[in-house]
UniProtKB/TrEMBL annotation:
This is Zinc finger protein 687. It comes from Tauraco erythrolophus (Red-crested turaco). SUPFAM superfamilies: beta-beta-alpha zinc fingers. PANTHER family: ZINC FINGER PROTEIN 532-RELATED, ZINC FINGER PROTEIN 687. The lineage of its organism: Eukaryota, Metazoa, Chordata, Craniata, Vertebrata. Keywords: Metal-binding, Zinc, Zinc-finger. Residues 88-111 form the C2H2-type domain.
Length: 111
């Protein structure tokens, strides 16, 4: 009787996580678990959100500034002095934002 109870109490203290379980947030892209909302938010933004360089003339967007510039130069010759604009794509729903802080506040609806 006492031996089993002692083993059970030792188990609760040392091995069992039943009483100390905490809420975790699992990344939907890579399955890493984070302890807090801010941690997973930061992780998703830095690891999974894509940045594109959008053509200032048409809807096309590119992974690099040189690609965007080459596109403007060849497709919109009269506008080759225009700079591409950076846009930020949400990894969760593909919504695109023109400012990174907007993407950050948008994340709250997913978490």
């Amino acid at each position: 009787g006492n031996f089993l109870l002692a083993n059970f109490e030792a188990h609760l203290k040392e091995a069992c996580l039943h009483f100390s379980r905490r809420v975790g947030y699992r990344c939907p892209s890579c399955a890493v678990v984070f302890g807090g909302v801010n941690s997973i938010k930061s992780h998703i933004q830095t690891s999974h959100c894509e940045v594109f360089h959008k053509c200032p003339i048409c809807p096309m967007a590119f992974k690099s500034a040189p690609s965007a510039h080459a596109h403007v130069y060849t497709q919109h010759p009269g506008f080759s002095n225009q700079q591409s604009k950076m846009i930020y794509k949400c990894a969760m729903c593909d919504t695109v934002f023109t400012h990174k802080p907007l993407l950050s506040s948008h994340f709250d609806q997913h978490l």
